[in-house]
Automatic annotation (TrEMBL):
It comes from Streptomyces vinaceusdrappus. Residues 1-55 form the HTH tetR-type domain. Transmembrane segments: none annotated. The keyword Transmembrane does not apply. Residues 18-37 bind DNA. It comes from the Bacteria. This is TetR/AcrR family transcriptional regulator. InterPro entries: Homeodomain-like_sf (IPR009057), HTH-type_TetR-like_transc_reg (IPR050109), HTH_TetR (IPR001647), MT1864/Rv1816-like_C (IPR025996), Tet_transcr_reg_TetR-rel_C_sf (IPR036271). Keywords: DNA-binding, Transcription, Transcription regulation. SUPFAM superfamilies: Homeodomain-like, Tetracyclin repressor-like, C-terminal domain.
């Protein structure tokens, strides 16, 4: 049911995902869904956990065997591809806080963070600056991907070329530290 909700969110947008729409998609009555989830907030949280886990798998798998700029490019491209392919489920992850250290959202978030931390090992980032570097990477990748998913780049320059500029920019910045 969570996978169906995530797929529907990708199609119609997270803001348009309702228990009624999901029930219709699944061919059941809305009250039947409450046997599986506690309501809309619970469904959205479960979608966020699924999305974060899938993003962690995508980025973690992409960086295997790479270091430095190659790892950075692989991670950034995998993250962007995930967001573009799954904009609704990715939207569920934005601003959602884990309820505690045992929350599955926290575990999935750590896995995604670990994948990006692995990228930083190819650079001489001072341990005291790792959090700043991770925030920079998240901001760049998240910002670009979510703007692109929302059709926010309407001018003539090639979007893929712009994304490669972003990767080169981040690489130069990480090398300069």
């Amino acid at each position: 049911m969570v996978a169906a909700g995530a797929a529907l969110a990708d199609e119609v947008g997270l803001a348009n995902l309702t228990m009624g729409a999901l029930a219709e998609r699944l061919g059941v009555r809305t009250p039947s869904l409450y046997k599986h989830v506690g309501g809309q907030d619970d469904l959205n949280r479960r979608i966020a956990v699924l999305a974060m886990s899938q993003a962690a798998d995508a980025v973690g798998g992409a960086v295997q065997g790479y270091a430095g700029r190659d790892a950075l490019a692989a991670a950034a491209r995998a993250f962007r591809a995930f967001v573009l392919e799954h904009p609704g489920r990715y939207a569920a992850t934005i601003g959602l806080e884990p309820s505690g250290p045992d929350d599955p959202l926290a575990a999935a978030g750590r896995r995604l963070l670990d994948a990006f931390t692995a990228v930083l090992r190819g650079y001489e980032v001072d341990p005291a600056d790792v959090d700043h570097a991770l925030r920079m990477l998240r901001s760049l990748c998240h910002g670009f991907a979510t703007l692109q998913a929302a059709n926010g780049f309407q001018w003539s320059a090639d979007i893929d070329e712009s994304f490669e500029w972003l990767i080169a920019f981040a690489d130069r910045g990480l090398r300069a530290r």
